[in-house]
Amino acid sequence: MERFEYADNSIGDREILVAVPSIVIGVGVLSMPRDIASATIAVDGIITIVAGGLLAILLTWFTAKLASQFPQQNFIDYASLITTRPFGIVLTLLLAVQGFMLAAFETRVIADVAKQYLFDQTPYGAVGLSFLLVVVYAISGSRTGLFRLNMMFFPIILIISILVMLLTTGLFEGGNLLPVLKTGVSGHWDALKQSIFSYIGFSFLLFYTSLVKKPKNVPKKACIGMSVAVFLYALIYVMCVAVFGNLAAGNLLYPTIELAKNVQIPGGFFERFESLFFVIWIMAIFNTTAMAFDAGVFALNSIFKKDRKMQLIFLLAPLIYIIAMLPNDIAEVSAFGVFVSYYGTTMTAIITILLLMIARWRGVTKQ
Amino acid sequence: MTVRRCFRILLYLSMIFVLSGCWDRVEIEDRGFVVGITIDLAENSGPDENKVAITNQFVVPSGLGGPSQGGSEKQAFANLTASGKSLFAIEREMATLVSRAPFLPHLQLIAVSSELAQKENLFSDVMDLFIRDHEMRREVDVVIVDGEAKPILDIRPENEQLPVMHIQSIMENSFKNAGVIQPLKIGELHEHLLNNRSYVIPRMIQNGNTLNYSGIGVFHGDSNQMVGTLNQEETRGYILITGEQNGGNVKVETDDEPITLEIMSINSSMKITDKTKANIGVTVNTEVEALIAETFGSGNMTTKGKMKELEGKAEAKMERLMNQTIHKVQEELNADILGVNRVLNQYHYDFWQEIEKDWDHGRNYFRDASIDVSANVNVQSSGAADQTKN
Fold this sequence. Notes:
The complex is a heterodimer of chains A (367) and B (390).
Chain A lengths: L12 H12 L3 H12 L5 H24 L6 H8 L2 H33 L6 H17 L2 H25 L17 H13 L7 H4 L9 H27 L1 H4 L5 H7 L12 H28 L7 H17 L4 H33 L5
Helix pairs in contact in A: 1-7, 1-10, 2-8, 2-10, 3-8, 3-10, 3-15, 4-5, 5-6, 5-13, 5-14, 5-15, 6-13, 6-14, 7-13
Chain B lengths: L1 H18 L11 E11 L10 E8 L1 H4 L12 E8 L2 H11 L3 E3 L5 E5 H4 L4 H11 L8 E5 L17 H11 L10 E2 H10 L3 E9 L2 E11 L4 E6 L1 H11 L6 E6 L2 E20 L2 E17 L8 H30 L6 H8 L1 H7 L9 H4 L1 E12 L9
Parallel strand pairs in B: 1-4, 1-5, 5-6, 6-8, 13-14
Antiparallel strand pairs in B: 1-2, 2-3, 6-7, 8-9, 9-10, 11-12, 12-13
Protein name (chain B): Spore germination protein
Family (chain B): Belongs to the GerABKC lipoprotein family.
Membrane topology (chain B): Lipid-anchor
C-alpha cells in the first residue's frame, strides 16, 4: 500500500508552542481541583498551582534548551554523543516507556469518565478500545499532520474552557475564596506534588525538537506554551473553589466536569452544556494520548536503523490497551496515575539535567 | 486478484454492522422522565428502622399535548410511590412498577417531609443518593414540606399541566415578597453537609389545593436534623441580617397612616468586634434601598422631614425584626444560620479554629455572643406620583 506523503515534513516553533499545552492539558485537569483543594484551605491551592507551574516551566526550558543545542538530531544521537551509545539507548527506552504509560493512563481515564457520565451500559473496555483505535489511526499517518491537528484542536479547547468559566460566573461566590494563606507547609507540599504531576508530558520536547528546522526559539516558545497551561489551570481552580467552596471541590470526583454541568444558559433552551464540554474535552485527551504514544514510537524507532514505525505501532497498541485495562477500580486507576506522574516527572528531570551538566562539563556541542 | 478484491469489499461491507451499534441506546419513548420526587417516612416504619417512602412524578408526554391540540383530557403526569430502606433500591423497584425506567437528569424538585427531616441524620443519609448519583444535576431544588410531602404532587394547578412546574413557578415568583428565601440547590446543600454548619431550607405548607411557600426550616449542622422553623416575620429578619436576597416589603406607621415600603436592595455586612470567647461581639450593618409602594394617608411625601421620619421608623422596625430572629436562633434553636461562623472562618481563621468545636453545640459560644444590629434605610423615591389624594 502506498501512503500519501506531505511535501513539507518539518514543523516550526509555532507548532511547538501549541503542542506543549496540548499534551499537558489532558485528563489531569478534570480531577486536579479535587486533589489540590483537599490538601489546602480555601483558595490557597492557587499558590501551589502557580509554584508547580513555574517549576514545570523551568524544566520545560531546560528540556527545550538541551534539545535545541543539537538541531535536527534525534535524542538518541545527542544522548550518545554526550554519554555513550548504550547509555543513550537506555535513556531512550526509559523515556519511551513514559510515553506509553501516559497513553495507557489517558485511555483508561477517558474510558472511565465516559462510562460514568455518558455510557451507562457500555463496558469501559469497549470505550477504551475504540478510543485507542482512533489514536492508532492518527499516529499511523505523518507526524507533521499530528502537529497540525494540535493546531486545529487547541483553540477550540481554549474557547470551551473559557466559555465554561464565563457561563458560571453567575455562581461565583467571592466569600468561598477566604481565608487566604492559612495552609500549613505540609498541606502546600502535598498539593505541590499533585500540581507538578498535572504538568507532565513536556519530555516529548526532547524528541520533537529535532523536527524543527531552526530550533533557536524553541525554548522560549515552549515556555510560553507551558504558561498557557499554568494560567488555564489556575483559572479553573479558582472557579471551582469559588463556585463549589473548598470542601465540596475537594469532595467531587471530577470538579471540572461538575463545573461544566453547572452551566445554565439563560433562556433554558440549552440545558445540558456538559455534553458539548465532553465532546471537546475528548479532543484534548485525544491530543495528549496521540502525542504521548507517538513520542514513544518516535523514540523507539530512532534506535533501529530501518524505519519500523508501523511495526512498532501495531506491536505496542495491544500492549498499551492491556496496561490501560489492568487497574480494577478507581483507586487502582489513581494509583496508576500517581505512578505515571512520579515516573514521568523524575525521569524527565533527572535525564535532562544530567545530560545538560555532562554536555557542559565535557564541552559537547553539535557535530 | 479478483478473489482478494471480493474479500476486501466484503470486509468493508461488514463494517456497516458495527456502525449501527450503540450499547446505551434507549428510545425516548421508553424513558420515564422524573420531574419531582417527594420523600416521606414510610407508614409501616418501625420506631428505629427509618424506612422511607418515595414518590416519583413522571411526565406523561401524551397528556401534555401540543399547542395546536389544545388541552387534552388526559392527565399529564403520573405519581408512583414505593418504599424501602435504600433509596437506590426503591428507584430500581420503581422501574419494575412502571413501564418506563425512571430517568433522573431532568429532575427539578426534591420535597422532603418535615417528619423525616426531624429525625437525626436521616435527612443527610437520604440526600446522599441525590448528591452522589452522576445522573443528578447540582441545580435541583430542595424544599421541606410541612407534614406529609406526597400530597403536593397531587395539586391541580390552574394554568400549569405539571404540579412540579407549578411549585417551581411559585418558588421563583415569590422572592419578591419578603418572608421567603430562594430555593436551595442540592449543590449548596452538599456544601452545607460537608461544612457541618447550620443551614436553612425553604418550607412549604399545603392547604387543600393551594401551596404556601412560607418560612424556612432550620437545620442544625451537627446532627443534620430540622430543629425548628422560622415563620414569615422571623424569615424577614433573617433576610435582613444575611442580605441573602433583595426584595420584599415592610409596613411602617407614621402619624397613624400606614405606609408600605418596597425593598429594592439589601446589603448587609457582618463584623466581629470582640474576640473574648465567653462574649463574642458581632455587629451587623444592613443598608436598605426602598421605594414607597403604598400610602394610606394623604400627606405630602416629598418633604425632607417626612422622608427622614419615614426612614427612621423603617429602620426601627427592621431592627426589631432582626433582633427577634437573633433571639430565636440563639436562645430557642441554638443554630447559627446567620453566617457568623462563616465570617469567623473567613476573617478570623485562627480564632475560629479554637472555638469551632464548641460553636453552636457543646460549650455553645454562639448562644453567648452578643449580636448588635443596625439598619440604614434610604428611601429613593415616592413612586410615580407625590400625592394621590388631598
